[in-house]
Amino acid sequence: MLAAFGLAMSFTQASAADLGGNCCADLEERIAELEATTARKGNRKVSLTISGWVNEAVFLWDDGTERNAYVGTNALEQSRFRFVGEAQIMPGYSAGYTLEIGAQGDPSNKWDQLGPSSSSANALVVRKSNWWLKSKDYGKVTVGLEGTATYHLLDDADGANTRNVSDAQAAAVYQGNFFLRSGVAGVNALRWSDVLRGVDNGTEGQNGRRNIVRYDSPTIAGFVLTASWGEDDQAGVSLTYKGKWGDFNILAKGGWEKSTDENLTGCAPFSSGGAGDAQDCEWFGGAATVMHVPTGLYVYGGAGQTIDHGVQLISASAEDTSTMWFIQGGIEQKWTPLGKTTIFGEYRHDDVGSRTNKAFGAGLDAGYVHNGDMNFWAAGLVQNIDAAAMDLYVMYRHADGDLTNSVNVTADLDAFDMVITGARIQF
Question: What CA–CA distance (Å, rounded) separates 132 from 256?
Answer without folding.
Answer: 23
